[in-house]
Design brief:
- Keywords: Lyase, Magnesium, Metal-binding.
- It holds the Pfam family Terpene_syn_C_2.
- By secondary structure, this protein is mainly alpha-helical.
- About 70% of the residues lie in helices and about 0% in strands.
- It has 17 helices and no strands.
- It has helices at about 10-15, 30-45, 50-60, 65-70, 75-95, 105-115, 130-140, 145-170, 175-185, 190-195, 195-200, 205-210, 215-240, 250-255, 260-285, 290-315, 325-335.
- Helix 5 (about 75-95) packs antiparallel against helix 7.
- The longest helix is centred in the last third of the chain and has 29 residues, at about 215-240.
- It is globular, with a radius of gyration of 19 Å.
Length: about 325
């Protein structure tokens, strides 16, 4: 099958559909201004001090507007740490995209220790230490240490997935489709954001709710759905950066010897399977007793992440091969830190 007339972004717009509401936080512009002036050109300017073009690329990613689709009802104060986390995910992804897998272990360990309040910025050697320390200080205003630890466990899953991705990239080796879905569930870094619904709503759910198999499955499905969408969106970018070894579309192509269009359609089929399961579980949640209404609300917020991601991400330049940091400039910057 020829790919000559195939447009992955058109497939995303027309065939990836979500039966969920799409809302946007009214504080998006305010927090985007903070992101650009206080953070990218302020606290974290030193990261890319001599590269205004790269700083502009990060601004154009509109991280606060992404977060605004995921957390539509958070107050400006509660929205702030969510936006800081969104910027951190971009910085961290880009800084370590070209790293040796073994170099991730120390970054992983220190990041979690800072988030949990176990080490200070002064005791750390990682470039984004102050960003994580600020994030912790903002989060602890709204959620207890137990929730912080749960959140940091989800950040830990992200680093575990990131290291596996780098292993595949270094060895130029494709995982199986099922292995790739499992590692991308972690590396997509959605799990940490799902925990922060507690920041938005002010409702702290007990650990038995978080550990319930249905709640865990719903979160896993949400991660899969964002990933399946993301893989089609970023396939051209990943081809340009050599990151094909952990893009599900490219893994499907490799495993089943399909054209790009056929692989994208298989990705869509897997997406729709998981979407149907998510909708079915959402419609038939078990009885959570006195917490039932809060769980229903959390799943409702989870669903808006899915529709919100489609709404905002199809408008972003980050997936255009000309609008993301080049690997060599990131590698050079990391070597200077």
């Amino acid at each position: 099958m020829s790919n000559e007339n195939f447009n992955p972004l058109e497939l995303l717009r027309t065939r990836f559909r979500y039966p969920f509401p799409t809302l946007k936080n009214p504080h998006a512009d305010q927090l985007q201004h903070i992101t650009e002036t206080e953070w990218i050109d302020g606290e974290y300017r030193w990261l890319y001090q001599n590269n205004p073009d790269l700083r502009k690329k990060y601004k154009n990613t509109k991280t606060a507007h992404i977060a605004a689709q995921w957390f539509p009802t958070a107050s400006a104060e509660r929205f702030r740490p969510i936006c800081r986390l969104m910027l951190w995910t971009l910085y961290n992804d880009d800084l370590y995209e070209e790293s040796n897998p073994d170099d991730i272990d120390e970054v992983h360990a220190q990041s979690i220790a800072i988030l949990n309040g176990e080490i200070s910025v002064a005791q750390s050697t990682i470039p984004l230490a102050s960003m994580l320390a600020s994030l912790r200080q903002e989060l602890i205003q709204f959620i207890p240490q137990e929730s912080i630890i749960r959140f940091s466990q989800m950040i830990s899953r992200y680093f575990t997935g990131l290291k596996k991705e780098l292993d595949y990239k270094k060895n130029k080796f494709f995982p199986t489709v099922m292995e790739c879905i499992a590692l991308r569930e972690d590396s997509i870094c959605l799990y940490p954001f799902l925990q922060l619904t507690e920041v938005e709503t002010g409702v702290i759910l007990p650990s038995e709710i978080h550990e319930h198999p249905v709640v865990r499955r719903l979160q896993a499905l949400a991660c899969h759905l964002v990933t399946f969408f993301n893989e089609v969106q970023s396939v051209m970018k990943d081809e340009a950066t050599g990151s094909i070894y952990y893009n599900i579309v490219k893994v499907i192509q490799n495993e089943h010897h399909l054209s790009l269009e056929e692989a994208c359609l298989e990705d869509l089929r897997l997406h729709n399977e998981d979407l149907n399961e998510f909708v079915a579980l959402q419609a038939s949640l078990p009885d959570f007793g006195s917490w039932h209404e809060a769980v229903v609300n959390w799943v409702h917020y989870m669903s808006m992440v899915l529709s919100g991601w489609k709404n905002i991400s199809t408008k972003l330049d980050r997936y255009n091969a000309m609008a993301f940091p080049q690997a060599n400039e990131l590698k050079e910057r990391l070597s200077q830190l």
